[in-house]
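One-letter codes give the sequence; the fold follows as tokens. An example follows:
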Amino acid sequence: MDALGPLDDHVAEVAATADLDESALRETLARMQSDVRSYPGVADIVLEYRRAFAYDPLVRRDGRRYFLLVPPRVWTEFAATLDASAAVVAAARAVHDRVFAEATELSPGERGDWEPLVFVAESAP
């Protein structure tokens, strides 16, 4: 299974723009997706976010792909667990932003202070 799903299409360009090692960005994005899948799982974390936030963060779901807008603190929490440089985390955010923009009709101005986050659930066995 492709661990990055729609994120994969943007890794090379974002890494080049940020002057980063593409493999470091790819590994960070894959680790993030893997962590979400293993605990507690994509559907469960989306449900948890729905309970925790004053709004429904799920903007769109397309099969195994979940497109969310979350408070910036969510990215801060992920960054603390990813063991990646600030530059790599910023590039990971940029990848998520690009994929979210392609998949939704929300302009950056319509997002408020919330930040895009894209999860890809594992396919059924």
Notes: The radius of gyration is 14 Å. Residues 5-120 form one domain.
